[in-house]
Amino acid sequence: MPSIIKIKGATVAVTTANNVNTATLLRIYAADIATITQATAEAVAIGTFTMPAGSVSWLEKGATDTVASTASVSCTPVAYT
What is each CA distance from 70 to 1, 3, 35, 78, 79, in whole angstroms? Predict the structure, then answer.
């Protein structure tokens, strides 16, 4: 992943569908095992992935796409170079 990260907003705790301030790139931290679902603004699922406990993932998404999780995860809008 990139070596330079620019924080674009505050971290949001996510469980239910949230577009995280219309961010297009997210840093996601899962303290516990979690299944992440990305969906369109119309709630049509795009896909899912599982995060192990204590892991970080990066998700590129459309501005109006939402993310939801089976356990609370911390989502931070970021940019990178």
Answer: 25, 29, 5, 22, 25
